Amino acid sequence: MAVLGAGATAAHAATPAPPATTSPQLEALLAQEAQQAGNPDFDYALGVAALDAGHLSRAIFALERVVAVQPGNGPARAELARAYLAAGDVARGREELMLVRRSELPPEAAQAIDRVLGALDASHSADRQRRINGYVEASLARDSNVNSATNAGQFALPAFGGLLFTMAPEARQRSDTVLGAAAGASAQVPLSADWDLVAGANLRATSPRQVHEMQTTVADFSLGATHLGEDRSQTLAWQSTGAWLDGGRYRTAHGVAAQWQQQLDRSTQGNVFAQLSRQSYAGQAERNTDRGVLGLALARSFGEGQRLAYGSVYRVRERPRDGANGGLNDHHGHQGYGARLGAEQALGPATLFVEWQVERRHYGGTEPLFDVRRHDHQSDWLAGLRWSIGRQWQLLPQLRRTIARSNVVLYDYQRTVVQVAVRREF
């Protein structure tokens, strides 16, 4: 009967618990709690009486003491499930019902629990409605180094005995005003009680007013599945990216990405992520690489979600695919590591965000013409606002600063981008 009672209550788990009351039976049991707590029979009676009177926390504590010393006590687990469900903890309530269901039960009790579990699963799927989000964006930016080039006018070439080489003006750092446009969409569709289909696509284009050869278009697409647990999720997805430069195909990348996300507590979330991809450059097969990334991330909110801090560390490796020429392409591959730190602060209708990222890269082989192994150290700073200017409209001013230090002068540069974007979400 306790099992059937738990089943009946579980079917109404979404309804709020009744207000707490007292009864002579509960008062008598509470008077003995100090002496009798730990006695399974007493704790069971106390738990049921407290649950019936709406004292959910006291009921849960008492019933948890019972199952701690009597793990096979089906009636106690059923009442504990009822208490969890009444408190809104559906995941733990479902777990307790599953434990009861695995024991030997009368047929009618087993059928009742099966109906309740089915109702809970259906309710869980219904709560996770299909979500489809999208955006369009237009931007205007001033870029101090639109071609990410060095500002050095002359440099020596060790491979030619220190011969001085003069850079053409168009190959050096150039500033420009850049127009941008972007659009994207994402979808999350429940497939079952604990599986979701996830997909996303983005398209972004930039058009400098003067340096037309730096017009870029980038498109990416992902499709995968997410498995949802009580306080964790795992996602595996296929990702494809294509980049075009000055109207011609520049690079493509295809691969898989995986993520394990764990809710550590109410305000803290941890992630482990990995990515494997194959990068191919149009007309430059010697640059083709296989890329792998492995990292850890942590995020924590403060002040009832008004502030957010996050960070990550990762390891990256790119290995050249063309090894038929005796390792002459090794300088296109590298090993590296990086870190990212960021924070957000809500300011009324706006959110201030800042971010810092650093990456060190050590390349293989010897850089042609320079007779050295290339080493890079890149730092990026970002600061901006997400400012709500109307229903589903945002104004996004931001400032980005990049400093790339390299022992090969061609890859040593600095860049500052000031941008204002308007975004419409739907």
TrEMBL record:
Q: Which domain of life is it from?
A: Bacteria
Output the InterPro entries linked to this UniProt entry. Slam_C, TPR-like_helical_dom_sf
Give yes or no: UniProt keyword Lipoprotein.
Answer: yes
The segment(s) forming the Surface lipoprotein assembly modifier C-terminal domain are 135-426
Query: Which keywords label this protein?
Result: Lipoprotein
User: Region labeled Disordered — which residues?
Assistant: 1-22
Q: Does the keyword Lipoprotein apply?
A: yes
Q: Where is the composition biased (Low complexity)?
A: 1-15
Per its UniProt record, what Gene3D superfamilies does this chain match? Tetratricopeptide repeat domain (1.25.40.10)
Q: What is this protein called?
A: Surface lipoprotein assembly modifier
Q: State the species of origin.
A: Aquincola tertiaricarbonis
